[in-house]
Amino acid sequence: ARHSGPFTNSVYVPLAGRAGYAALLQIDGLVTPVLKASPDTLDFGKLYIGESRTLTVIITADSRLVPGGIPLTLSSSDSSVKVAPFPRIARRRSATAIAYSVTQEALKPDTITGVLTLAPAVRNGSPAAATPAKIQDILDGLSIPFSATVLPKAP
Asked: What is the pLDDT of residues 27-40, one digit of tens each?
């Protein structure tokens, strides 16, 4: 969600041939994020070996980022965390929301931390669409930290 939030800018209109200004225009606004995750962190809590826990994360992308629906893949930095998109995608005029199911599998006792990241989907070994560098920069700017504690089997 880089480059988002409230802003104030001013425009001064000079007087021709004189010192000073004829007018001052102040512009206040709010820039909404082009890409955001909800929640922005995932905590799987404590799990025992053999258990799994599934959480949902929703990625909302400005429709200009996914104009024809550039397919996005959410992936994990840890192989014990599996990510799968839900079949339905909500599209509105201004934004597209994609829900993902994120499952932590408790394989061995450990404290697990990592991140989920977005990338253009790959189909048949190549990206689904050429991703302009500006869009790739926005995708690279979103990461969702996750954590879990895996304990030995309960007594």
From this structure: 998 877 778 899 99
